[in-house]
Amino acid sequence: MPPLVQLLRVSVGTADRLAAPLSDAAWQALLVQAKEQTLVAVLMEGIKRLPAEQQPETETMFTWLAAAERNKQSARKLNKAAVQLSDRLLRDGLRCVLLKGQGVSLLYPDPLTRTPGDIDLWMEGSRKQTVRYIRRFFPKMPVVYHHMDFPVFKKLSVEAHFTPSWMYSPITNRRLQRWFREAWPREAAHHAALPEGAGELSVSTPAFNSVFLCVHIYRHLLDEGVGLRQVLDYFYLLRSHLLSDAERVAALHTLQRLGMRRFTAGLMWTLQHLFGLEDKYLLLPPDASEGEFLTEEIMRAGNFGRADTRFAQEQAGDSHWTRFVRKQRRNLHFLSHYPSETLWHPLWRIWHFFWRRANGYQ
Question: DSSP string covering 13-29, please?
């Protein structure tokens, strides 16, 4: 078992030590991996739990501690900004729900250890209403199917979502969008307080996340690459005791209707293999073949696929055609595992290009 996985298990409490002490060079290499997977602060908690003889040397320990503290400071800033923006939107008559991120971090033993990303807000109302509101401040801001950027902070990224996610297949996408619409009233009414008195806002419920986080991992995998951070979110959700048996059954039923049973079974194997998730928390029996494929993708790609050397990375000046071809080449890699989404992908991309152009969203 690789040192990263061993330390990850210690960090989440499914192991209490490494198989053997690591050299200082191994600890330095592990820190690079931790940064690629955006897990530095989480793994630092694991280092603290190790027996003294297995902890890194003092200088290396300080390097880890400094990186973990920077992570926590970023999380504090993001928490305050999320509440500030949510309050401002409410004053302007717009309700929103915080997706993933700071809301999911509340499932962690220490919420500040989760590496912060964007502020993702699911906006109430239609796409046109949200676009109209944001373009009052940023008139030329482009729009894609599920969200648009809302750059109200200089150093923090904000995405205003019309819908939390999507599918390439029109059939499963219709089902998913219906499920989101039906879930909205419950999600908007669910409030939680962020750590250290940052404030309170609407965050998605565990029942919602039991489907949405799985879909989110699936989307990341197919579109750019997924890292361990997103999978760790799902681990903590399934292990949190916040989901009733009925909600677990309902989540699996929804995921099956979205054509994701095979992927979900693979994800269950990955959660067991990497994190040591116990059988009682699984949504369905794990699939070893699919899980091995998924785990390999996660370990090679890193967060947003930035560590993946198999495929060319997107460049700022790339043309629409270049991006389209790159996506097709990458997606063919998934054809035998997720054929529906892979085959629908080029048709969806073509439709999406002309839909944006027709609506003035480019």
Answer: TS-SS-SSPPPHHHHHH
Nearest-angstrom CA–CA distance, 282 and 265: 9
Q: What is the pLDDT of residues 324-362, one digit of tens each?
A: 677 777 777 888 899 999 999 999 999 999 999 999 998
Whether 358 and 249 have beta carbons less than 8 Å apart is answered as no
Neighbours of 94 (CB within 10 A): 17
Q: Which residues of 164-188 are buried (b: 16+ CB within 10 A; e: fewer)?
A: bbbbbbeebbebbbebbeebbeebe
Cβ pair 248, 143 in contact under 8 A = no
Q: Longest Cα pair distance anywhere in the chain, in angstroms?
A: 64
Residue-wise pLDDT for 36-80, tens only, equals: 889 999 999 999 999 999 999 999 999 999 999 999 999 999 999
CB 120 within 8 A of CB 101: yes
Cβ atoms < 10 Å from Cβ of 117:
19
**Using CA atoms, how far apart are residues 234 and 151, in angstroms rounded to an integer?**
28
| Cα 328 to Cα 288: distance, rounded to the nearest angstrom | 27
Strand partners, 192: 201
Going 63 to 274 to 227 to 241, the CA torsion angle's sign is negative
Which residue spans within 88-176 are E strands per DSSP? 96-99, 119-123, 147-149, 158-161
Contact between 272 and 299 under an 8 Å Cβ cutoff? The reply is no
